[in-house]
Amino acid sequence: MIRVHAFVLVALLALFGGCAEDSVRQVLAPRLPEGMEDVAEAVAYAQSFAAMPGDVQRLEADGLAGGFARNHDNRSRLRLALALGTPGSPVQDDVRAVALLEPLAEQSGKSPLRQFAATLQSQIAARVKEKRRADSLKGEVDTARAQADAAKSQVDAARTELQAARGQAENARREAELQRGQAEASRLQSEALRQQLEALKAVERTMIERGNPPPPARDSK
Q1: Which long-range contacts (CB under 8 A, 24 or more apart) does 98-101 make?
Q2: Three-state DSSP class for 210?
């Protein structure tokens, strides 16, 4: 029955949406089954709180928290839970709302207030679970993105090191070619000097054979 009553209650609240909370309760109370008055008041208050501006919601929530600290009755507990469980409000705290609703949802019996609190707690708890799951997925995505960025940085660093190593290898190759060129030039110069010396020796032998003294040696530079 609670689901049917809740549906009728929501429809009536939509119809009397412009009424004040006390007026809504006065209109609904005579028409509701026994035990539904507290639920009607809670739903009316939730609608009223959701329509408040953000700064007013903060002030209202502070007042509710103070009232609940002084008196832990069901009405104060439920109102504070409804305020904290209002989506999009600046005071939204789903985890605390679930904790506040837990004693009401675990009451013995099947009173409309207990069933309303249990249903509300289940809905807010599901929202908390979904948010945690979304946060977890976001964390995994952020971690994967950070790992990808780190891997990219490592690849870029390795590429830079490889390019530097290639540059050093190219410089070493050019230096080796220069040294080989210098060695080849030295070898050719030595070979030219050797050939000149051999030619000079041949001239000396020829002159000795002919009985002429060899010409004076020239200083070869």
Answers
A1: 98/124, 98/125, 98/128, 101/77
A2: coil
Find out whether 115 and 2 touch, Cβ atoms under 8 Å. Answer: yes
Say which residue, 2 or 43, is predicted with more confidence. Answer: 43
Distance CA 126, CA 130 (A): 6
- CA-derived radius of gyration, the chain: 49
pLDDT at 209: 77
DSSP structural state of residue 19: S
CA 151 from chain centre, in angstroms, equals 16
Task: Please check whether residue 56 is in contact with residue 82, taking contact to mean a CB–CB distance below 8 angstroms.
Answer: no
Q: Which residues contact 3 (CB under 8 A, 6 or more apart)?
A: none
Report the amino acid identity of residue 181: G
What is residue 13's predicted lDDT score, i.e. its pLDDT? Answer: 45
Mean pLDDT of the chain: 82
Instruction: Note the pLDDT of residue 12.
Output: 40
Q: What's the full length of the chain, in residues?
A: 221
**Tens digit of pLDDT for each residue in 52-81?**
999 999 999 999 999 999 988 999 999 999
Please give the Cα distance from 86 to 93 (Å, whole number). 8
**Local confidence band at 117 (pLDDT 50, 70, 90 cut-offs):** very high
Looking at residue 31, what DSSP letter applies? G
Domain ranges of the chain: 2-132
